[in-house]
Amino acid sequence: MENKLAEQATKNLIDTIIAAAGVTRYRIAKTTGINQAALQRYANGDATPSLAALIKLAQAYGHYPAVAQWFANTFHLPDR
Question: Would residue 42 count as lying in a domain?
């Protein structure tokens, strides 16, 4: 059950990045260096990203408010 929740959350992250940044999965892959097939698995909820992949996504797209909010909500980060 917990793994399914993580997979759904990751799918929401990819969808959030696409909506907030107006980019495609291809552009996310090029920007982050994350394999396009891996992004597809994350987006489909078939896999969860490693910590390294999450860091790459945060570094590349965390400045978008919706993406920053996703990270804050998912990892229960305190307000600054």
Answer: yes
